[in-house]
Amino acid sequence: FVPKSQNSASIRLHVSGLEKEQKIETEDDVTVVDEIPLYVPIVNIPNRLKISGKGVPNRKDKVQLIDTTTYEASLIKNWDIDPSRQKGFDWEIEKARRYAAGLRMREDGAWVKKPSLFEFLVSKHRINNGSITGPSPVNVMDVAFLFAVTILSYLGLGPAFGMAAVPTAVIQKYEGSMLSFITGVLGGDLQTMAGGPLFLLLNKYFLENGPIFNLSFGPKSFLVISDPVMAKHILRTAPADQYCKGMLADILEPIMGKGLIPADPATWKVRRRAVVPAFHKRWLKRMITLFNERAEILCDDLTRKEGTVIDMEERFCSVTLDIIGKAVFDYDFGSVTKESPIIKAVYRVLREAEHRSSSFIPYWNLPYADQWMGGQVEFRTDMTMLDDILAKLINRAVSTRSELTVEELEDRDNAEDPSLLRFLVDMRGEDVSSTVLRDDLMTMLIAGHETTAAMLTWTLFELAQGEPGMFEEIQNEVRTVLKDKDRPDYDDVVAMKKLRYALIEGLRLYPEPPVLIRRARTEDILPQGSSVMKDGIKVLRGTDIFVSTWNLHRSPELWENPLTFDPTRWERSFKNPNVKGWAGYDPDKVSGLYPSENAADFAFMPFGGGSRKCVGDQFAMLEAAVTFSVIIKNFNFEFEGSPEDVGMQTGATIHTMNGLRMRQTRVKKDDPLPSTDGWWEKQHLKRGLSSNGRAYQSKEEVEHTKFTEITDLLTLE
Ligand code: HEM
């Protein structure tokens, strides 16, 4: 609290992880209100910021700080700007609302916050630096209205409110034991309620109800979308601030802060502009050396363990963790070769993030949950450990900052530390406050680790059980392109098209994450797409939306043999005029390392689409291509047991249930290339297409091709 008469003051802040105390002038970091302190005038209080000093309240005090960047604080401000509004019935209602949110009026008229049992129900949604830009965050009234509409829709009255008659799938059947149901519900586990991995359930309802339906749990409902035209509208066509991350932002904020993934539209705009240049082409090419080094460490490990059973999922997770640590903040986890408490903390935090993403009760917001709930106590300890490491790395980078323009940074050959952190810190004029950097780094650590590992895991899983000749096609390509070279470079990755298409086919069948989460910030009309609703579908403000990439990637309307792992499909075009407004998949639109959402007109979104598309797509593709090529150049794999033993479970990424347990044998340099029997080309020829997957343009071309194929055969014989 700052005395009324004072415009500025000094506060000592002990930021956890900083080695020495920092003295911060209020003018720089703290907003001081020289009227009655209506709310505590400190903006952007990070979750783990400890503030000490006489008279400064902390989180354990009976009176707590109100974070002025929250929606709640903005409401209070609106009423208090004009004291003449504070009378009459409206004011009584407002007071009741504040009391319910744990706010109390002091004798001097100031509102303060007391811990409340119901606090976990209060919106934690953040606004940008105290000013609301774009549509305001969805509030309690919106949610109440949506509940009412859901109930009326149950009764068949939805259309009377202008709602389209979207089918409703009600989750009501649970097939597990009663005990697991009770513990699951108490833990707020959506999967338990749903009776299995959520994306599988969404797939079942998609096949029953079509491309758009409501998924209801009591009065709460989600709009589930499995249509490329509607998905494109939400992700790309609508203004960038019309759809936000909604409940995902609430869930991830305690972990990623205001990092890019959960960021509200206004914060996102600023940070995205800062982060994107760091992924420049020269840096990506340099990262290839890192990918090779780490893939070699993994190869050495696999060679040492030749013939034994290895969990390849675990190995891929380790190698991608080591890569992301080095690439993002120049930290060597060394997890391929050792275990450590830090690595364990990373994995526990990841699991907690996943559990939160599939929960419908925000149990972590219960009063003092981090002091009495076992998992939450551990979570807090883990987060503190990771935050401390990040704080040290950030301090080290900031203390040796040398500001340069983006162009200068791109040209710089920073051999000792080519990390993203170094780039972001040295970027001229950029925000290098530790909270902003910490949030970005934590986000990239989480976003860039298990996603890539899952792509490697599931691609190997599918290739190892593919038709005879499929795996060999990819392996032969790698061996032919690399010849005697051990380390692929950028041009080699470009040349290994079959390998890249196999990896991307892995992401088609196992998209990471399998659903994208959004919330409508204003009312909207979705296009018809493959639905029967000619006038489109009305979406109310506040509607929570799941765009199911799993359903899109496996839809029989959008793919030929959708459930078959077939990397050759990316060379053939596919169209379906029944899906109104969908351009189909066109291989001629593929540019760059993989067929993107544009080539498939949003039927395929391996890295999302529109403004919130993944910033690490090129990084991930190069990382996966280098790692996979080095591994399959040197090893053959066989399942230990059968592919069915592997199983599947969900989270933010799709994991195996029992690990990808395989035996590997070393490929010797002078082993002859295995026979493929022309498996790749045959996939096109058997569909009456030419050997590169294109349709013949004329009869003459068909005859000519047949003739050359026959002469080729004769020559071979
Ligand atoms: C195979 C690997 C990867 C997959 C499948 C993947 C997938 C995705 C998807 C689908 C999104 C969009 C989420 C949404 O719209 O809600 C996304 C966003 C994001 N990804 Fe990735 N990702 C991968 C690797 C990486 C890597 C390596 C990094 C960083 C080094 C990264 C950083 C991010 C960030 C920061 C965002 C948020 C972008 C924004 O909102 O502006 N990802 N990713």
Automatic annotation (TrEMBL):
The keyword Signal applies. The keyword Transmembrane applies. The chain crosses the membrane at residues 143-166, 178-202. Keywords: Heme, Iron, Membrane, Metal-binding, Monooxygenase, Oxidoreductase, Signal, Transmembrane, Transmembrane helix. GO terms for molecular function: heme binding; iron ion binding; monooxygenase activity; oxidoreductase activity, acting on paired donors, with incorporation or reduction of molecular oxygen. Belongs to the cytochrome P450 family. This is Cytochrome P450, carotenoid hydroxylase.
